[in-house]
Amino acid sequence: MSTARPSTGAPLPSDPAALEQLIKGQQAQLAESVDALVDKVSPKNVVARTKADLRQKSHDAVYTSSGELRVERVAAAGAGAAGVAVLALVSAVRRHRRRGRRKVEKAAAKAQKRLG
Questions:
Q1: What is the dihedral of CA 94, 98, 99, 105, to 10 degrees?
Q2: 104: Cα separation from own chain's centroid
Q3: Longest dimension (CA), the chain
Q4: How many Å apart are CA 41 and CA 47, to the nearest integer?
Q5: Cα–Cα distance list, 36 to 18, 28, 31, 42 (Å)
Q6: Would you say residue 1 has pLDDT above 60?
């Protein structure tokens, strides 16, 4: 068995009480490290850190470091949102018209079957 501490290389105490005290100190340090790791990887804390990071990034994207609003970025975001809304509206109108044409074509085919 080695008589030196693995972490520091210092000799281990020969007194049982001192050795016990050293072991208790190492256990406390290990417990603190484990608690810190558990706290760091806890899903609740990861979500909280991620939310805080996103909040800060979005704030930095919209405001300058002096607190002024970045009008050009807000306008660009608004224009982008408006563009997406227009595309969604055009798509919905085209889909509605296609469905209407299909209904008319089906009705015409039924009528032709009856007559023919």
A1: 160
A2: 48
A3: 112
A4: 10
A5: 27, 12, 9, 10
A6: no
- For residues 95 and 5, the model is more confident at 95
Contact 95, 101 (CB under 8 A): no
Model pTM greater than 0.85?
Answer: no
- Alpha carbons 35 and 39: distance in angstroms, whole number: 6
Q: Which two tokens stand for residue 48?
A: 């909280």
Residue with tokens 């469905």: 99
Phi, psi of 80 (to 5 degrees): -65, -45
- CA distance linking residue 69 with residue 60, whole number of Å: 10
Q: What is the pLDDT of residues 32-68, one digit of tens each?
A: 999 999 999 999 999 999 999 999 999 999 999 999 9
Determine the pLDDT at residue 4.
62
**Percent over 70 (pLDDT), the chain:** 93
Cα–Cα distance measured from residue 90 to residue 105, given in angstroms and rounded to the nearest whole number: 23
CA nearest 63: which of 53, 54, 50, 73?
Answer: 73
Among the listed residues 26, 25, 18, 19, the one whose alpha carbon sits nearest the alpha carbon of residue 1? 19
